[in-house]
């Protein structure tokens, strides 16, 4: 069953990853262009060894990241996507990453996405579970986007609050490539997301955004590192968090502008709302600039809902609870609007609205989060 990741009116090619292993449903993906490869990472490693070896491990370095080394040592499978030169995948690829076990479990899976020159693809990753048990997921995803390529990536984390998820995403962009990444975290006990982006060709554009909604004892940690290695590149980071009860969160963002990366434009913003006195948020935006002809900015805020705005709405007959929900939804909507695929954006709108109203929170008690 994959109903939990249903996106009404959006026609996708669905790929199922079960406990870190590619689940072969014996039916070919629809409308997949000639030369494009989508399937098991383990199978691709044996059938296309030269292609996999060309990109595998080139961006995710085991020398600096212990958990990446752990993944490299124990990984058995994952998803492999290859889009050859000049090919555009018209139908989005939807990866349902499902954890289902009768016991506590640790999952290590590896994804490799390669887009050659002048290509395009949309990938949606949905993290879910049917299991009430505790589990740890340690995943590594390496993404290469060639010159003049376009890649749209959305990851939705909606597991239960006994789950621990550590996600490493390494992205290397070629000349004039354009990548949009959206991360939506609805549930998860301990979540750590690491984004490493290298703009490795002139004229690259990268837009990375994230939203998390936390309550109870959740801890959500987002790390974003953007390396401007070449000139004439643009990057935009926007991360937001809403924290309730005694939940905690962290954001650590860094933009590196190398000496030869002139004409860089780089912007980083992290905004957060604390709904209780017990919620905690730590934020650390950073700029490290070695070029002198650039436009860069960074900033962070941690605060509460605007009392003046609440008073304004209540004075016009809107109840306190609905007023607070409207402000929270408006705060979150700036991130949701970054999602380019309209049916997916509408679905995320619905899930975020339910989460803010506490409906998904009640649902998560049965470890289903069906939404």
Automatic annotation (TrEMBL):
Secretion signal span: none
Gene Ontology biological-process annotations: iron-sulfur cluster assembly
Pfam annotation, one family: SUFBD_core
Ranges where the SUF system FeS cluster assembly SufBD N-terminal domain occurs: 2-95
Domain SUF system FeS cluster assembly SufBD core: 101-331
Protein name: Fe-S cluster assembly protein SufD
